[in-house]
Every structure is written in structure tokens, then in C-alpha cells.
């Protein structure tokens, strides 16, 4: 899937993001989208344990967290991040067929989810929604 420019009328205020995915391709794609939005990827994690450690050290504004990862899966990683910070803003990234794990993640505190493959514009919409609405206490979860 070729990366398309993100349709955005205006860049958001700068935000810091942790991208956790065992796929280098997926990390690169979402990092490009975040940069186009005016955000900064402060760390990339290739497994759940790295994501937990990066979150503890950096406390980013947003985490994009793949559900299927080595060492700790996304749900267990989310659980550990939420233990550190109940207000963590986490968007789960899943493949079709992981509905049960997505539901668990939403129940644990994930603010939303995106299903792979996703369009850049959809990812931008979800990121904006979580960054803008979760700061106001508005739930951001969408229907599965």
C-alpha cells in the first residue's frame, strides 16, 4: 500500500507519540502519518515489554499499540501501561479477527482502535478524536 498524503486542513498542536508494533513497515507508515499531523514519534517499540518501558520513561501524549506482538501482547501491554497511568491515551491497532481482544482493550481503557489495513485519513481522524476528546473526558471508542 503506497503512502498517500494526509488530507488535513491544519496541523494539530505538536504531540508526542509512542508507536508499538512488531512490523517495521507498520511503524514506518504510522510514523509518517503522525509527522504529517505535526506530531513527533518519541519512541518505537517492537514488542510489548519495550512499549511498557518506553511509556514509563517518556509518558507520551499518545500510544499506538498493535494487538499482536511478541513478549507481551497488546492487551497485556495496555494493562501495564494503564497501571502506570490511568489517563494514558492508547489507540489499539488490530487486524480483522481480533474483536475479542479489541473489546478487552476498550474495557481496560484503550480510547479507540483502528483495524489494519487503514487509510491515512482514517488514522488521522482517530488520532485527532482521541487527542481532542479524551482530554475532555469524552469516550472515543467506536463500534466494532
Brief write-up:
By secondary structure, the protein is α/β, with parallel strands linked by helices.
What does this protein look like?
- It is built from five helices and five strands, in the order βαβαβαβαβα.
- 38% of the residues are buried.
- It has a single domain (16-132), classed as 3-Layer(aba) Sandwich (Rossmann fold), CATH 3.40.50.
- Helix 2 (48-58) packs parallel to helix 3 and helix 3 (74-84) packs parallel to helix 4.
- The chain has 144 residues and is of the alpha/beta class.
Regarding quaternary structure, what we see is single chain
- CATH class descriptor name: Alpha Beta
Biggest sheet architecture? 5 strands, parallel
Total domain count: 1
Number of strands: 5
| Relative strand content | 15-25%
The helix-and-strand class reads alpha/beta
Order of helices and strands: EHEHEHEHEH
Radius of gyration: 14 Å
What CATH calls the topology is Rossmann fold
State the end-to-end distance.
24 Å
Features:
single chain, 144 residues, alpha/beta, Rossmann fold, 5 helices, 5 strands, 19% strand, disordered N terminus
